[in-house]
Amino acid sequence: MVLTKERLMLSRTAEYALRIMILLTEREGTSLTAEQIAKATLVPAGYTVKVLQQLGRAKLSKGQRGRKGGFVLACNPSKVDLLQVVTVIDPLKRITEFPLGRTEHQHSLCALYKQIDAAIESLQKSLSSMSLKEVVKSGEGESLCQEHGHGNATLSVKAAN
């Protein structure tokens, strides 16, 4: 996870999972091939299959074989929040002890790591506050940037101050 001044970034794989789950929510009830999903979400094809496998093991998506095969949403998108999707792929980890192992910080975090931990906590709260269905119904235009003609579909979550 990379921390920048303007935003917290999830791991790329977690972001890919969010894009895929938003697409499956938008197309709920429609079977999509891995190739269709990769193209619509701008996720590399190899990653798409790997992420779909992880989502399938968590019973968030389901693969169907056969002529009308593909992948579909396997969960209730109103009951699955963004943090649950991220946690399946790459859980956000809070900082509970000083990462460098210095003994003078063994009982409390220094100011820097307190701020980083607060940012992680804020991201967790933000992601857990919105379901997949709410993202799709948010009324802020299309759920994925690519559908606006942008060259790169990216999901960003700003940390609350």
Topology of this protein?
Layout lengths: L1 E2 L4 E2 L2 H15 L7 H8 L3 H13 L3 E4 L5 E4 L8 H8 L21 H18 L3 H5 L25
Antiparallel strand pairs: 1-2, 3-4
Characterization of this structure:
It is a single chain. By secondary structure, this protein is mostly helical. Helix content is 42%, strand content 7%. It has 6 helices and 4 strands. The protein has a two-stranded antiparallel ribbon. A two-stranded antiparallel ribbon has the order 3-4. Mean pLDDT is 81; it is low at 1-8 and 147-161.
Largest sheet: 2 strands, antiparallel
Report Rg.
Answer: 17 Å
- Summed over residues and divided by their number, the pLDDT gives a mean of 81
Low-confidence stretches: 1-8, 147-161
Strand count = 4
Please write the CATH class name of the domain at 8-93 and 131-146: Mainly Alpha
* CATH architecture descriptor of the domain at 8-93 and 131-146: Orthogonal Bundle
Query: How are the strands of the biggest sheet laid out side by side?
Result: 1-2
Short description:
The chain is mainly alpha-helical. It is 42% helix and 7% strand. Strand 1 and strand 2 form a beta hairpin.
Which labels suit this protein?
single chain, 161 residues, mainly alpha, Arc Repressor Mutant, subunit A, two-stranded antiparallel sheet, 6 helices, 42% helix, disordered N terminus
